[in-house]
Amino acid sequence: MVHRWHQKSWDQLVIARNAKHLPHAILLAGAKGTGTQAFAQALVNSLLCESPLENYHACGECKGCRVRKGDVHPDYFQIAIEANKTQILIDQIRELNDFLHMSRSYLTSRVAFINPAEALNMNAANSLLKSLEEPANNSVIVLLTAQLSTLLPTIKSRCQILHLATPSKTIALQWLSEQSIQHSPEELLEMSSGKPLYALALDNEEHFKRRNDFANDLLAVMMQQQSLTEISKKWQTASKDELLSWQIHWVQQLIKYPFNKVQAQAILQIPHVVDSAKLWQLYDQLIKLRRLAHTSLNAQLFIESMLLLWMKLSKT
User: Fold this and answer.
1) 3-state secondary structure at position 142
2) DSSP label of 133
3) Which residue, 7, 54, 47, is CA-closest to 24?
4) Which residues of 160-199 are buried (b: 16+ CB within 10 A; e: fewer)?
5) Count of H helices and E strands in the chain?
6) Which residues pair with 111 in a beta bridge?
């Protein structure tokens, strides 16, 4: 599925394919929660389709499409972060390199999908360079990243980069309003920092409760009512990206509206315990910490690092 705000990007690919100039490596770059995953899957399905439609969307009916729906297409190879790992490792890329040079089972291209590309560790990224520099015949590598700046320049220079836009607030609100949601679209979009797919995923009470629980724990640490070690242990199995997204959003809200309601009740008290003059410094540090989310850094230590940033700004 290609969302309406990504149609121009899809049109660029249509033009390239009509001109027989589709690159062998396509790097899709866009914020998580804006439909980039759906775009990438639409592209993969299109490349594996034996009878694509006029706009190059997959037909959904040919043998290639049917096999793809069953997730057993022999000409497709996907790389993601393996269970209990934090990075994409070199052995995974070695398997990919072997795959790309195998004979095709169908008449379409051999397609590889790497997501998230920012999770490639240094050895894996260097191993991937060989396939990018010397592409196998009739093969396409699709990479998806939400952190383009963290990728090696050598990776970026060997791919055709396609930027996937975040929709405007008006378009995002319109799309959210068309969905079946429990909370107000304005509130959800504010919580997601303008990312409509992420906003939709937030529309459940479990998420609201988990978010408020973390806000309460964060405030308790700042006010020295709970120990740093105890709280970091409690949250060590949580998604690092999710925890950082919450905090970045709260800091943005505190900077913009220091005395207005913020969606996590405990955060209302933070202006009373934080040196507001240092909020921009905290924001920058949280953004930098996000770049380490896919490293092998111990989860508990990672969360302690997050909490320490807040404690350093505490007035207590």
Assistant:
1) strand
2) H
3) 47
4) ebbebbbbeeeebbebbeeeebebebeebbbbbbbbbbbb
5) 14, 5
6) 76, 140
pTM above 0.90, yes or no: no
Q: Which residues, 6+ apart, have CB-to-CB distance to 217 below 8 Å?
A: 226, 231, 234, 235
Q: How far apart are CA 240 and CA 288, in angstroms?
A: 13
The structure tokens listed for 186 are 């304005």
Distances (CA, A) of 308 to 136, 214, 291, 300: 48, 15, 17, 12
Identify the pLDDT of residue 115: 97
d(CA 99, CA 8): 32
Give phi and psi for 77, each to the nearest 5: -135, 125
d(CA 97, CA 178): 43
Q: Which has the closest alpha carbon to 273: 230, 219, 216?
A: 219
- In sequence order, the 6+-apart residues with CB closer than 8 A to the CB of 89 are 82, 121, 123, 124
Residue with tokens 């899957």: 41
Confidence at residue 141, expressed as pLDDT on a 0 to 100 scale: 97
Question: What are the C-alpha distances in Å from 205 to residues 2, 9, 202, 235?
Answer: 28, 34, 8, 19
Q: What share of the chain is helix, strand, coil (3-state, %, to 5)?
A: 55, 10, 35
Q: Which residues pair with 77 in a beta bridge?
A: 112
The segments of the chain whose pLDDT lies below 70 read 257-275, 296, 314-316
pLDDT of 268: 55
